[in-house]
Structure formats: C-alpha cells, structure tokens
Amino acid sequence: MTLNEKQIELIDEFSIFDDWMDKYQYIIDLGNELTPFDEAKRTKDRIIEGCQSQVWLDASFDGNVMHFEADSDAIITKGIIAMLIRVLDNEKPEEIAKCDFHFINEIGLYEHLSPTRSNGLASMVKKMKMAALMAVGQKG
Amino acid sequence: METTGKRKFNLREIREDFPALRQTVYGKNLIYFDNGATSQKPQYVIDAINKYYSKDNANIHRGVHHLSQKATNEYEASRKTIATYLNAKHTHEIIFTKGTTEGINLVAFSFGQLLQKGDEIIISAMEHHSNIVPWQMLCERVGCVLKVIPINKKGEIIYDEYLQLLNDKTKLVAVSHISNSLGTINPIKKMIDEAHKVGAKVLIDGAQSIQHTKIDVQALDCDFYVFSGHKVFGPTGIGVLYGKEAILNKMPPYQGGGDMILKVTFEKTTYNELPFKFEAGTPHIAGAICLGKAIEYLNQFNIEDLEKHELELADYATDLLLTFEGLHIIGESKKKTSVVSFIVDGAHPFDIGTLLDKQGVAVRTGHHCTQPVMDFYKIPGTVRASFAFYNTKEEIDYFIAALDKAITMLR
Fold first, then answer.
1. Alpha carbon of A77 to those of A19, B6, B142, B282: distances in Å?
2. Catalytically annotated residues of B
3. Is-contact B132 B124, C-beta < 8 A?
4. Contact A28 B365 (CB under 8 A)
5. Which of A16, A21, A40, A51 is catalytic?
C-alpha cells in the first residue's frame, strides 16, 4: 500500500462516523492499540514539550525505509500519533519528505496539528519530516 | 446607561445581552466556561465598537477638527468612568495599556528604574507568568532580588511566610488579587497594609478580580492595580494601570513617542504630564472607549448580585464534580472565586478538554500560564471551568453529563 493509499484508508475508516464523539472514541481506541513505547527511550532528546500534552518520538532509518515509534501522555494525542505512524512507518524517506498529510484535514483533525495548539503534534510532524530529510541526505 | 437605580439580576434577560452565547458548536449549544481566559461581550459594548468606527473615528488629542474632538471627548470620558468605578482619587491616575501584562511590564520598567541592586521584590507562588517574568527581567537588569511567598496545599498564601519576607529592603509586593488557576482570593487588604509598614509599594494584579468584585483602590490603598478590558466584558487589546499620582509622577516614562511629550528637540525632550506621559503613540482609542462602555454595562448591576450568582454556580459545580471518583479539585481555599480547577485520575486534562469541546463545552486545559503552580502540585495541568454571571445551573448540569461521558471514554 502506498503512503497515499494508507491515508485514503484512514479517511474511509472515519467516514462511517457522523458524530464527533464516535470519531474521538475511534481515535482513543487507536491510541490504546499503539505499540507501547520503550520506557528506556523516554529520554530528554526524544521529548517534544507542548503546553497541553507531551510527545516522545524515536525515528530511525534502516538504509531503506524509516521507522517511527512515538508516545504521548494524552490519549487523543496518542491516537493521532498512531495514525501518523501507520501512514509513515516503513516508508522511504523521499516519500515522507514530500508527503502532504491531507487525511488529517479530511478527517477534521486539523486543529490538532496546528502549531498554535501546542500539544506537541505539529512539532512531531516537523521532526518526522526532518528525520526523513536527513535520511535522504545519508543516502546521498 | 442608567446607573442610579440598579438593574435587577434577571438571568434570562442578561443572557439576551450576550449574542455570542446564542450559538451552536459541533451542532451543540455552546456552553462557555472559559471566562477566566476571556469574557463574552454584551451587545451594548459591541454596538459601541460599531458606532465608534462608523461615526467617531479620528485620532485623539491633537486634531483641531470636529471628529478628533469627539473621539478625544469619548476617550477621556471613558478614563473618567473607569476612575470613578475604581474610586481613584484622580482621573489621571488611570493609564490605558494593552492589558494586564503591559501594565505589569510598565511598572516593572518604570518603577524598576527607581530601584537599586539588592532591593527586594515579593511575589507569590500562585502568580501568572505575567506577574513573574517582568520581575525576573527587572532583577536581571538592576540586580534586585525576587522573593516568593509559598502557598499551602489548599492553594492559599502562607501568610506568616509573607510577613517573614517583608523587610526594609522590600520595595515592591506584586500579587494577584485572585489566582487564575486556583481561584483563591488573596487577603490583599491585609497584605497591602503590612507592606506599607516597611515602606514597600504594592501592585495588585486584578486580571481575575475586576469582573467579579467591587474594587475601591483608595479603600485598598494599593499603589498599583492592573487589569485587562477583555476579561471584564470589554474589548481585547486594552487594559488599565491605576497608579497613585505621587508614584506615577516619580516614575520615568515607559515608551517614547507621540503624545507622551511636551517638547522635543534633539538636545532634550520634556515629557508630558499624567496620564499622557505613559501613553506613547496612538492608543487603542476604540478599545479604551468601549472598555468604558463595558464598565458602564457592569455598573448597571449591583456587583454583589452578580458575585452571589457566580459563587452559587461554583459551589453547585464543585459539589457535583466531587461525586466523580478520582476527581481532585485543585485550589481549595475557603475564599474562592467562581473558578473550579480539577484533575481526574487516569484521564489527561487535554483529553478531557477535547472531549468536552466536541460536546459544546468550552473549558481551559493546561497549566494556565502558572507552571510553578502545576509543579507545586506535581501535575501536568488541570481542567478549569470558570463561570461568569451569565452562566446557568442548567449549563453546569450539561457540563457534568458531558464530563461523565468523557471520563467513561478515557478510562
């Protein structure tokens, strides 16, 4: 599945909900299902502080594709992280670097990625893209 | 607006005055419980803004034409309204600012110019960042020492510790009248009197008190009182610094520019007198005029009636909140305003706030610009519901049901 197909799949999954609370219940479920973050990785260099919630991000490159692990102290933030990871994990850095996360807007979650929201998510997306750009650089 | 015979407190009629309350968000009726952050505006104020820009807009104080005179009259009439409302001795003791933050920064800069290395400034552990950082900056600039009155678990100033901190090196005490994150009402009258005994001046941060309670600056005998217009049903971007004439006269200007000067040559500039000395540049004329209108609106009521209703709302909400298992109220002072901050075991404040929002309930979540308070309680933040006199018990009932739903989803 391409990166864009994964976005469309998420949009489809959300399209069945017409009530906001149902949408958020699903986000919470996704957050609860997110692969647990290794406690040892909760280090200062991985933390992204927001004034509402905090996010931890670990990004790595295996020479071919990017790997992301992330966590948050807030479950809704964590649910959105789970969606971002689903879209971006195991993707080539070139694809990530040029990716436009249209699914966030289409699901109606744009407010969570607004830099003024200060929940750490906007900075997290920036860091994911930066890690991908650096990986592109590594490959030469 | 009629202010001699006070308007009766009628909640249904009052709600009619506030158009922003009559709207839906996400298909639900808006319930606005974020009044601590900013208040909604009565139609009376909105109409005044409209009228100013439609009919009266001109630059003030120097224009020889009709419109300029009209705008100037309105601007100065507003200053008079505010001076009367606060019971200031002189109208020129009212300085228009951008808001509380600018008022504090003005004092920190200008009064700060009169301070010396080793002088002490006292604040409390419950202050908003706006009443911490300007003093830290002053301390860095001048070499003053910042002392902090600790608080107890209930969120009250430890009064004996305050008395211990006061000494002849204390030059200023800067405390909030009411805490924005805890709701605590501080015993400012007592604190002011004690500070004066050692010769210190006192600044009261009134950002959270002007909208809830009657302020009489002469009875309080505070040296400075600052507040923001937008929290007292007026426009954003305008606020007031009240200062005693004698102190304001001693203080050098804050910013240089138009209006604050008498005569400018390249050799020397003479400053204008109060209040213009502290109002450099074209001010927020519409804001200042309409802040006066907001005060007029408020002044039609007996503020005690509004306060009584707000406290009933806070008590009602607190009692219902305490029925939730694992819910903890943060800020349990005996003397509290209509602010209820809380945390819930197993549910992050941000998540609660988001799920309340989706049900139409606007609350504040996070550290409320009081990180030291959050550090003191070792919590990341709180959910804060803050009530205004236009809120209702029915809204609280809905909020409680929405909160119950949110917590069920999160646990």
1. 19, 49, 43, 44
2. 369
3. no
4. no
5. A51
Instruction: State which residue of chain A sits closest to B25, comparing Cα positions.
Output: A20
Q: Give the tokens for residue B314.
A: 């806070």
Q: Give the domain extent around A36.
A: 3-139
* A124 closest CA partner among A138, A114, A134: A114
Which CATH number do you get for residue A124? 3.90.1010.10
pLDDT over 70 (residue B2): no
Owning domain of residue B246: 47-299
Closest residue on chain A to B350 (Cα): A52
Residue B372's alpha-carbon distances to A96, B129, B146, B321, B323, in angstroms, are: 39, 9, 15, 25, 28
Is there a contact between B278 and B248 (Cβ–Cβ < 8 Å)? yes
Q: How many distinct structural domains can be found in chain B?
A: 2
B2 assigned to some structural domain: no
Q: What is the ipTM of this complex?
A: 0.90
Calpha distance B333→B182 (Å, rounded):
8
Look at residue A38 and tell me whether its pLDDT is greater than 90.
no
- pLDDT tens by residue, A82-137: 999 999 999 999 999 988 888 988 998 877 776 666 667 778 888 899 999 999 98
Residue B193 has which token pair? 């009197």
* E strand map for B230-303: 239-243, 261-264, 269-271
